[in-house]
Specification:
With about 400 residues, the chain is mostly beta strands. The protein contains 2 helices and 28 strands. The N terminus is likely disordered.
């Protein structure tokens, strides 16, 4: 497959695009078979305002670039991963609706663009920036910050479709908060108790180790990165957990949609016990202007707020407030296969901080040969939260639709 180099500063990284060159025989076949395949997508019992649809293309069709064409002429790009999995995004698939589209050969489109520059991997759609991954430690925002708080391996900033920022980095009250990040807090490892979250304790840290993959495409683009959680309490630093992040940004416009999947496994043979605590895992720090007890609005899928939501369980939680005079928000959707799902939540009484915190339900452990996985979808929008929309988006995340090829030439 072809590789395109995305350059930035002194760094280059190969990025696999999703439109490999077509073999000559396929080009000849395209001329003889212009009608392509018929794709059928069946709706569920509820409306899907935005539906990410998986498609199992015939093996002989996976090397080509396709789009799905409706009877009214509307087209939807189809993207095939290097592993052979294809997907597309449909808008407003009604309850019980059956939509039939024709797959036809198409020219490659731009959609999600990934650029790498000066230690940041930026992810954008045609409409504008979505977020950026910190591959390396960026300059500290203030000279008085202790270097112990300097870290990499997180997402910030996160933007709404109109370009307003909904995350913060190095907030003065919690210098260890960084946009969207991951760490464990109360742990037991080899008789010691490293804290990977509160970096100021100097007992643990999390750092980026390398980028494995960047990709772009008309439907989604993203990255796969390696991190590690390191114990600093022993005679020498010891890597406890190897961690993989997969970030996938979808090509949507009215709202921003991206998935973060974190997979962890032991770096050695010693069990790490994750002790009961009210936070730890994947965290979100909201915009700086939301600091204070009245400046942030929380709303959960169960209708709870900042006043009564902490330590309850929910499928999703909205965090929002005013930015540049406009109401904006970001919602975190938890996958039903996550440990202790629907997970309990840390909703802070004074800060714009949110965390799905499975350790609230009790201690658990990561053992040799096991993998611990966290899957979350983030929805970023301008305006007030729409609970019905977030319910529908959670349904699509939890139970994605599968398109079926019903016929073809």
């Amino acid at each position: 497959m072809p590789w395109v180099t995305v350059s930035g500063g002194y760094h280059t990284l190969p990025v696999q695009r999703t439109f490999p060159f077509l073999p000559l025989l396929l080009l000849i076949g395209a001329c003889r078979s212009p009608s392509g395949y018929v794709l059928e997508v069946k709706g569920t019992e509820s409306l899907r305002p935005v539906a990410v649809v998986s498609i199992e293309l015939p093996l002989r069709a996976r090397a080509a670039t396709w789009e799905a064409r409706a009877d009214d002429g509307t087209t939807y790009p189809v993207q095939t991963d290097p592993g052979g999995q294809s997907s597309m995004i449909l808008d407003r698939l009604g309850a019980g609706e059956v939509r039939r589209l024709t797959l036809v050969r198409a020219e490659p489109r731009q959609g999600v663009v990934v650029t790498k520059h000066a230690g940041l991997v930026s992810l954008s759609t045609d409409e504008g920036p979505v977020t950026a991954y910190h591959e390396s430690k960026q300059p500290l925002p203030r000279e008085d910050i202790d270097p112990i708080f300097h870290r990499s391996g997180y997402l910030h900033p996160v933007y709404t479709p109109t370009g307003l920022m909904v995350t913060d980095d190095y907030p003065p009250d919690h210098l260890h908060h960084h946009g969207i990040w991951s760490a464990w807090t109360r742990t037991a490892f080899q008789g010691r108790n490293p804290d990977f979250w509160n970096m100021g304790n100097r007992t643990g840290l999390v750092e980026h180790m390398g980028l494995d993959t960047l990709w772009e495409g008309p439907v989604h683009g993203g990255l796969r990165a390696r991190l590690q959680q390191v114990d600093l309490t022993g005679a020498t630093p010891t890597t406890v957990l190897n961690e993989t992040w997969q970030v996938r940004v979808y090509n949507t416009d009215a709202l921003h949609l991206f998935d973060v999947t974190v997979t962890q496994e032991l770096a050695g043979d010693s069990i790490v016990h994750l002790l009961e605590h009210h936070y730890g895992g994947l965290g979100l720090r909201g915009a700086r202007g939301w600091t204070g007890p009245v400046n942030t609005r929380f709303l959960t899928s169960e209708g709870r707020t900042r006043l009564d939501g902490h330590a309850t369980r929910a499928r999703w939680c909205h965090v929002g407030g005013m930015v540049a005079g406009e109401m904006v928000g970001i919602a975190v959707l938890g996958h039903p296969e996550n440990y202790e799902s629907p997970q309990p939540m840390r909703i802070h009484p004074d800060e714009p901080f949110f965390n799905f915190a499975p350790a609230q339900a009790g201690a658990f452990a990561i053992r040799p040969g096991e993998k611990y996985e966290m899957r979350y979808r983030f929805v970023v929008y301008d305006g007030d939260p729409d609970p019905d929309l977030l319910d529908a988006l959670w349904e699509d995340f939890a139970y994605p639709l599968q398109g079926t090829i019903t016929s073809g030439t």
